[in-house]
UniProtKB/TrEMBL annotation:
Protein name: Glucosyl-3-phosphoglycerate synthase
InterPro entries named among the record's database cross-references: Nucleotide-diphossugar_trans (IPR029044)
Organism field: Rubinisphaera italica
Transferase in keyword set: yes
Keyword Glycosyltransferase: yes
Length: 403
């Protein structure tokens, strides 16, 4: 994937030649004295029993520059939490587990909920939000990265390349997004980016006109990647969506808060594969069906905030434009896959586009029906203003759970 094109409004940092992981580690270790680094790992207990996380932990144990690893654990009872403590105990770095289902953190959540400040939905967004709250509460680190726990092709240099742009002493970036291409087992993957996000951004530009936000979003090569890093100064004002729009919502927040020149993306992997979500054609509450609706709503909400007017007529036009753009892209994807010796099922691709078309209309209907919904979890700046001792409460809960 190496090239040198800078054809978007944000900086793209390529893998122009292969520096060794040891070289990257040495640089990061040197810079860690001035800019300590943390890693957030949001996970489900079931991922401890999956095929990916064991290998990820073994490789993270060799990352010498990490000051702390913050693990957000969801869907775990007490015995499973104790198992998780043993599982992660091999990490030589300082590490803590946020037992999100434990009574202590549940009590913190209940207090925030009584004030209307707690996340409304369970899921990755809530998990990440509390982990970032703990990151701010300790104040130990000046940079933080986040990646998923189901990466089957994980290598240690993924994290090194993700952190490098925001801790380099002369770089001005405050936020970095990882990118890669998705292929595994002879198949071209990445359906939601390829078949929804890319053609939808093009259709929006045709329907409502070119604007800076759409140019910005179109600059990201893999906007739905779960891997990103940021400096500590970014975190307090960041509003995190609680639904499947987490990645799009986070990019939108960075657009709102910072100049394009302070945002970049970096090539972190030659190959990337992780757990695949089912399409869930008959279940709007699960899989890619739910994800596609939430992503559409995230884009629509952001454009509405920027002054764009949506109506049923606009959504009908947008659906038609999206559908045509997506079908045209399938031709390119098919040829690309074939030339690279990969397979692509055109029938399945077109069926998925049809589902995403329905998702787009469903998102539009939900937006028009209830435009006042608050999709974001409050920023930590707002929470600490309302509950000044909340960081102490989170720290106490985590310390006691991990004692």
């Amino acid at each position: 994937m190496a090239d040198f094109a800078q054809n978007g409004v944000i900086g793209t940092l390529h893998n122009l030649r292969h520096r060794t992981t040891e070289e990257l580690d040495a640089d990061l270790s040197e810079w860690s004295a001035e800019r300590p680094m943390a890693l957030v790992l949001p996970c489900l207990y079931s991922e401890l029993e999956g095929p990916a996380l064991n290998s990820i932990i073994e490789k993270l144990a060799q990352a010498p520059y990490l000051e702390e690893i913050i693990i957000g654990l969801d869907r775990a009872d007490r015995s499973q939490f104790e198992n998780a403590r043993k599982f992660f105990s091999r990490l030589p770095q300082r590490h803590v587990i946020l037992w999100n289902d434990g009574p202590r953190l549940q009590a913190v959540d209940a207090e925030l909920s009584n004030r209307g400040l707690a996340p409304m939905e369970l899921g990755k967004g809530r998990n990440v939000w509390y982990c970032l709250g703990y990151f701010l509460a300790t104040g130990r680190c000046q940079a933080v990265a986040l990646h998923d726990c189901d990466i089957l092709t994980y290598e240690r240099d993924m994290l090194a390349r993700l952190l490098y742009p925001i801790v380099h002493p002369t770089f001005n970036y405050v936020f970095c997004k990882g990118y890669y291409y998705r292929a595994a087992n002879g198949k071209l993957n990445g359906r939601v980016v390829r078949l929804l996000v890319t053609p939808l951004l093009r259709a929006l530009q045709l329907t409502i006109g070119h604007n800076d936000y759409l140019d910005y979003m179109s600059s990201f090569r893999y906007p739905l990647s779960g891997e990103f890093s940021m400096r500590a100064e970014v975190v307090p004002s960041l509003r995190i969506p609680s639904d499947w729009g987490l990645e799009i919502g986070t990019l939108s927040e960075m657009y709102r808060n910072y100049s394009h020149h302070r945002i970049c993306q970096v090539d972190i992997a030659d190959a990337y594969d992780h757990k695949h979500q089912p399409v869930s054609e008959d279940n709007p509450s699960g899989g890619l069906h739910r994800m596609s609706v939430d992503i559409c709503k995230a884009l629509i909400r952001k454009l509405a905030v920027n002054g764009k007017v949506f109506s049923p007529e606009v959504f009908r036009t947008l659906k038609a434009s999206y559908y045509r753009a997506a079908l045209d892209l399938i031709d390119h994807y098919h040829n690309d896959a074939l030339m690279s010796g990969l397979t692509l099922d055109r029938h399945s691709e077109e069926a998925t586009v049809e589902l995403f078309s329905q998702s787009l209309m469903s998102a539009g209907e939900q937006f028009l029906r209830d435009p006042h919904v608050a999709p974001f979890i409050p920023s930590w700046s707002r929470v600490t203003s309302a509950v000044p001792d909340v960081f102490e409460s989170i720290q106490d809960a985590v310390i006691q759970d991990n004692a």
